[in-house]
Design brief:
alpha+beta; OB fold (Dihydrolipoamide Acetyltransferase, E2P); de novo design (two linked rop proteins); five-stranded mixed barrel; 8 strands; binds zinc ion
Length: 244
């Protein structure tokens, strides 16, 4: 199984496709004839489609060759609204920029599939995006700590007071460790609590409700944190301002 995360025109008739596969991680494969009217792949190579694929692995220097692709789940969010569409593009961008070629992350694959499915339906886009970002961070070993100071380990009480979060440190920091740190933002207890809930794999999707203020705080935090990790702002942030 694979998610189509990028398509680049290759020749008159072909695409170079980037696929995030369940078993092999990200791969780049040539899809011969995919741009023809009667493509052998039909809709299985539409952007963000989830498809069953067969490909031939080439040596490290050559591109893999896609030989078969059969559509399992189309990405229909475009017909819902633009924010859903952009959220889908953002999922593709994170998979593209945060994972390496041929580095399998089956958990992340499943969480991306679930997110695309939810974007096809009527789920809350802001919540879906935040959940996907947090599960990506968890899978790649970058999930911030929300309950203990990331520096000294002391537990941080959520008693309605504001909490400091170190963007570079990668988590909440206590008042003592906060001193002299750069790139520290202040968050409400509610925002931290919601982030813990959103990153909890067992929490039910329906149980989460976010006020506009908390939404804004969470967007600001995740935007800053992911930009720090990548060393630049993801391209899709400009299109996702509605989620604030
Ligand atoms: Zn501390």
């Amino acid at each position: 199984m694979a998610i189509v995360i990028r398509l680049v025109e290759f020749s008159e008739s072909s695409y170079v496709s980037t696929l995030f596969t369940e078993d092999f991680g990200k791969i780049t494969a040539l899809a011969k004839g995919a741009r023809r009217q009667k493509s052998p792949f039909e809709n299985a190579l539409d952007l963000l489609a989830i498809s069953r694929v067969v490909f031939l692995r080439k040596s490290s220097s050559a591109m893999d060759l896609l030989t078969e692709a059969r559509l399992e789940q189309p990405f229909r969010a475009a017909t819902r609204d633009l924010t859903c569409l952009y959220a889908g593009y953002y999922v593709a961008e994170l998979l593209q920029t945060m994972t390496d070629e041929r580095d399998p992350h089956p958990e992340l694959f499943r969480s991306a599939c679930k997110t695309l499915q939810s974007l096809n339906g009527s789920q809350d886009v802001g919540i879906e995006v935040a959940r996907f970002e947090l599960s990506t961070l968890r899978d790649l070993g970058h999930l911030p700590t929300f309950s203990e100071c990331v520096e000294c380990g002391v537990s941080i009480p959520l008693n309605g007071r504001r909490v400091s979060f170190g963007q570079l440190a990668g988590g909440v920091v206590c008042q003592r460790c906060r001193v002299g740190k750069r790139h520290v933002v202040s968050l409400s207890s509610n925002a931290i609590q919601s982030l813990m809930q959103l990153s909890d794999l067992n929490s039910s999707r329906d149980a989460i409700e976010l006020t506009a203020t908390v939404r804004g705080e969470i967007r600001g935090l995740l935007n800053g944190y992911i930009s720090h990790l990548l060393g630049r702002r993801p391209r899709m942030y400009g299109y996702l301002t509605q989620l604030r």
